[in-house]
Amino acid sequence: MHRITEKIVLSENIVKTVFEAPEIAKKRKAGQFVILMIDDKGERIPLTIVDSDPVKGTLTIIYQVVGKTTDQLAQLEPGDVIQHVLGPLGHPTEIDGFKTAVCVGGGVGIGVLYPIAKALKEKGTRVISIIGARTKKMLILEDETRGASDELHVTTDDGSYGFHGFVSDVLRDLIAAGTKIDRVFAIGPVPMMRVVANVTRPHHIKTLVSLNPIMVDGTGMCGACRVTVGGKTKFTCVDGPEFDGHEVDFGLLMSRLRMYVDQEQEAKERCRCGKND
Amino acid sequence: MTEPEKTDKKEKKERIPRQPMPEQDPRLRVTNFDEVPTGYSPETAVLEAKRCIQCKKPGCVSGCPVDIDIPGFVRLVADGDFLGAARKIKETNCLPAVCGRVCPQEDQCEKLCILGKKWDPVAIGRLERFVADYERNAGTIEIPALPASTDRRIAVVGAGPAGLTIAGDLVKMGHDVTIFEALHKSGGVLIYGIPEFRLPKGIVDAEVEYLRKIGVKIVTDAAIGRLKTIDDLFAEGFHAVFLGVGAGAPVFMNIPGENFSGIYSANEYLTRSNLMKAYRFPEYDTPIAKGKNVAVIGGGNVAMDSVRTALRLGAENATIIYRRTKNEMPARAEEVHHAEQEGVQFKFLTNPIEYIGDEKGWVRQMICQRMELGEPDESGRRRPVVIKGSEYAVDVDTVVVSVGTMANPVIPMTTPGLDTNRWGYIVTKDETGETTRKGVWAGGDIVTGSATVILAMGAGRKAARAIHDYVMSL
């Protein structure tokens, strides 16, 4: 059982939850994730660890409310518990040996990007971050990301804040201006990661993307999270979650993410109805 | 039931026939997930037990991987002492309700029963199940007296059949035993793999509860290799480690289109249904595809479990696709028989080579090839050979790939000094399961590759004795 110690609504439907998981907090490195299951009838969902406090023994997650489980998670307040948390899972992000790295984050993906930017910065890397959201009030972790970056660019799709456009537009401009980039980390919605990978491909700038497919056990046992990378099948839980963005079949990833769209809708509606009883 | 070939005239009159197992009607049972065989009544059990001729040198015992005193417990059943019979089995087998259901008795104890030479063997598995169920339902499960503590701590990784067995054995020797399980529930394949209709989960829970009562500590949600390495466990003060982590990684065929939506590994399909209870969606949150045309690729027990699950989830056509013939199928005859009764279709000498998806990336068709049997291969079974130009398309909306499993690499990857073979299975030095790493033993599927529950339990038992000797020498 994992007691929740803090909950903050970051934007309209993006929530930050901090909960106790002392052993995971000791071991966790940037880029790793947990599988959590709220109660014994719940679904097992993967969420990347945004931060950990080994002294307090807590983990921080940031998630967007998209389905029944994330909705239920967002209802939990300090003192409530999450029944099961498994982790830390997946390979940590490789952060050594880059002079300049560009961290590109979109939407709730900024939550996952921030600890990577922070870890890179601690290694002495020059970090340029580009973060974006659909609109100003959906932008999260701006100050935190700024603190972990040498240079920060902010974009909104509707122009309500920062640069009017996409994160990929700013990246394209940076490359065009001759910025020497050793590595790009791109984390966000699948279409954003695909576009970023397309921007860097002609320039041969290695671009890592962090994938968040549907998972069940998270230990390599089921293959629900399989993705095609460079024409080969990989399991995100044990081979990832980060892969070479130039090799990932994003179309397949998107269609597999939509596999249970009807059931998810049904579950969410029932969950909502229950609340009105 | 097969007719006896020759029957002694005198005995023909009096001989009691092997008692059939009562079962749910096939038409009814495909509509539910309740257990198919309903179990012997006390009267039937006594009648069946009386068939045993109490051999002086019982063949059945030598066929049992955990050395159950079979004539001993069968005699107690014949005498009506069902609780005594349960205690007798539990001297060497801590999971009788499980083994009575899922052991391939026809290849083990019952195969060597002397009655089987002329007539049908004693139904040892059904009797084992009966006494275990009787004891559980009577609510009189006895907690044995435990020896004084040895102050030796042993870590068991994986709460499947091997791990549960060794934990029970070691705790009964006075050791302090902790099981680490990655999933949120204990039982391993008994919980995530074998369906409710073959092994009700309440039974597994009861057997796990028994282990807790006798002092086994179980830590779930613990991914050893990630949360803690084997080195960490020794650093925490464990004196020995047993790895019973199973051959958990699914094998795919690497054919075009295999990652389309609607295509599952058997592990995923069964885990969703069994562990996560997706068959009770939306009461439980985990969904599963409820296909109309379901193809299950493979001919083993796991394939039978998958295809029978598909029927119960409402499939109109649930079909086994197998590249050899019925004779070469590795599944137990009983499972194949149950599947046939329930309306499963079988396409033999058929192999998929490609999947076709729709615009949403969902599987819609499977391209198959016809096969014929050629010369025997290294397994002794005749090798399937492709018939050129025989490709044809079949409409499917759900596919379950059940062509085997392989070793999960996480623990070997994170444990220095632990050797694996070229398939990734852990190398053991002898039949106790001692590995190349000092103080570490391994057993079950992570050593042998996919096998049976009872063989994993046998491995746990052998390692328990060796670990006991080792920790007592420290």
Structure report:
- The complex is a heterodimer of chains A (277) and B (474).
- Chain A has nine helices and 16 strands.
- With 277 residues, chain A is of the alpha/beta class.
- In chain A, helix 5 (167-176) runs parallel beside helix 6 (190-200).
- Chain A is globular and about 55 Å long.
- The two termini of chain A are 28 Å apart.
- The radius of gyration of chain B is 23 Å and the shape is globular.
- Residues 1-7 and 9-13 of chain B have low confidence and may be disordered.
- The chains are: A alpha/beta (277), B alpha/beta (474).
- Chain A binds chain B through residues 23-24, 27, 37, 40-44, 68-69, 83-89, 216-224, 226-228, 233, 238, 251-252, 254-256, 258-260, 263-264, 266-267, 270, and chain B through 182-184, 192, 220-223, 226-228, 248-250, 252, 254, 258-262, 264-265, 267-268, 271-272, 276-277, 281-287, 289, 360-362, 408-410.
Low-confidence residue ranges of chain A: none
How many helical stretches of chain A? 9
- Strand adjacency order, main sheet of chain B: 3-2-1-4-16
Report the radius of gyration of chain A as a whole number of Å.
Answer: 18 Å
Reported for the largest beta sheet of chain B, the result is: 5 strands, parallel
Q: Give the N-terminus to C-terminus distance of chain A in angstroms.
A: 28 Å
**Number of H- or I-type helical stretches of chain B:** 19
Main sheet record of chain A: 7 strands, antiparallel
Q: What is the N-to-C succession of helices and strands of chain A?
A: EEHEEEHEEEHEHEEHEHEEEHEHH
Radius of gyration of chain B: 23 Å
- Tell me, briefly, the overall form of chain A: globular
